[in-house]
Amino acid sequence: MIRRYDSVIVNFITRALVPFIQLFALYVIAHGHFSPGGGFQGGAILAASVLLVRLALGRPVAERWLNHQIMRWLAAAGVLIFAGVGLIPLLFGHNYLDYSGLPLWDLHDPLRRELGILFVEIGVGIAVLGVLVTIFDHLAGWRRDV
Amino acid sequence: MRLLGVVLLALFVAVVLLAEGDLPPRGDPQAPANTHVSPYYLEHAIEEMETPNVVTATLADYRSYDTLGETVVIFTAGLASLLILTRGGHR
User: pLDDT for B58-89, tens place per residue?
Assistant: First the structure.
């Protein structure tokens, strides 16, 4: 089990840095089609911020913030978001994962595909976050019922 | 048993080395990989989905099946490690 790291400096720096790390992670996910980045990278950075809290502030704080059971649901939800975004065009007469079939009628075709990419990247990011934190939690010995 | 493993490994290496001779040179512009779909991706990515980042456009749109598979692989890896690390009987 991981206890709180007993240092004022580490605790303070963690609390100060984590919001910025997460903001940067969201930026990397959301700007995956304008600059280097994307779901995998952004999800990894997001997971790093969560792991930093788990390592530095200890289990009680981390459990109050994001408990370890949510994480495996997030992993499944991310994959389902990806597959679900792919399924929607099927209902509108397009191919699977053909984002130009997404029901966003106000937008012209390239923009629809761009938004499709964004939705998919969000799904990938959530899945990577969930999987990485789940693996860490179980390596650290956090059991199912606690 | 160990000998069998070594023999199988040697056979595998031989097959791979044999096949490697038929591969086109690295970066050959006339290679099938560079003449079939990749020029189309590079030329049409910006007009078809307005994404300046061709890598993301290729990964998440043209080759989205592959990315979906990658995500499922990561999810499966997480599930497998969860099953291994959550030892039975502890509940």
Answer: 888 888 899 999 999 999 999 988 888 876 55
The predicted-structure confidence for B39-62, as pLDDT tens digits, reads as follows: 888 888 888 888 888 888 888 888
Chain B partners within 8 Å of A131 (Cβ): 74-75, 77-78
Q: B28 CA to chain A: closest CA distance, Å?
A: 26
d(CA B38, nearest CA chain A) in Å: 18
Cα B27 from chain centroid?
A: 18
Q: For A110, which of B47, B59, B65 is closest by C-beta distance?
A: B47
Q: Does the complex come out with an ipTM higher than 0.85?
A: no
Closest CA to A114 of B40, B48, B68: B48
